[in-house]
Design a protein that fits this description.
An 8-stranded antiparallel beta barrel has the order 1-2-3-5-6-7-8-9. It has a single domain, classed as Porin (Beta Barrel). It is built from 1 helix and 9 strands; from the N terminus they run αβββββββββ. The chain is mainly beta. The longest helix is centred in the first third of the chain and has 18 residues, at 2-19.
Length: 179
């Protein structure tokens, strides 16, 4: 039941928010990630790129409140290290996030990320769904470019023989706004 309510409520909230956004924009965002995948008996560290595309803006009824919806894709990762068995190397991830934020200064925003992520654990031949929660900061550099840094926690369903893996992502990247 909760699996159906979470995506439905994200879509509803996003739809209501988009209707009252002040100067909303489309954006894309390349970033670099360092990922730590862990399970009860194994772990791995990986580096990868992420590409995001979203739509967001500040609410017209509450200045300083930012709302966005974002799609992201993380292609193949470069394995940095691995411990234990079975291995937890990932092939790709993709997902959908709802990003509410708060403007804390001229051009600076703190935000949280809530969403769904699907990851292919190549060494397990499993593609599984998970929940994603994160926090971050975004700083305006120019009229079109922002700098974004964030931490994301991903909790996945159980994989037979592995347990319930989790993944911590630390990312730094840019956001290009189509003004």
């Amino acid at each position: 039941m909760l699996k159906k309510l979470f995506p439905a409520s994200m879509i509803l909230i996003s739809g209501i928010a988009v209707a009252s956004l002040d100067a909303p924009t489309f954006y894309i965002g390349p970033s670099l990630l360092v990922k730590a995948n862990t399970a009860p008996s194994s772990s791995s560290r990986e580096a990868s790129a992420r590409m995001s595309a979203g739509y967001g803006g500040t609410l017209s009824v509450a200045q300083g409140i930012y709302i966005a919806g974002e799609l992201f894709f993380v292609p193949s990762s470069l394995e940095i290290s691995t411990n234990g068995t079975p291995k937890l190397k990932t092939t790709y991830s993709y997902g959908l996030s709802f990003i509410p934020g708060l403007m804390i200064g001229d051009g600076t925003m703190v935000f949280i990320r809530a969403g769904l992520v699907r990851t292919d654990f190549s060494t397990q031949s499993k593609s599984i769904m998970g929940l994603q929660m994160g926090v971050g900061i975004q700083i305006k550099l120019t009229q079109s470019w922002d700098l974004r840094g964030e931490y994301n926690y991903n909790a996945y369903h159980t994989i037979t023989g592995v347990g319930a893996p989790r993944s911590d992502w630390l990312g730094l990247g840019g956001v290009y706004n189509f003004n």
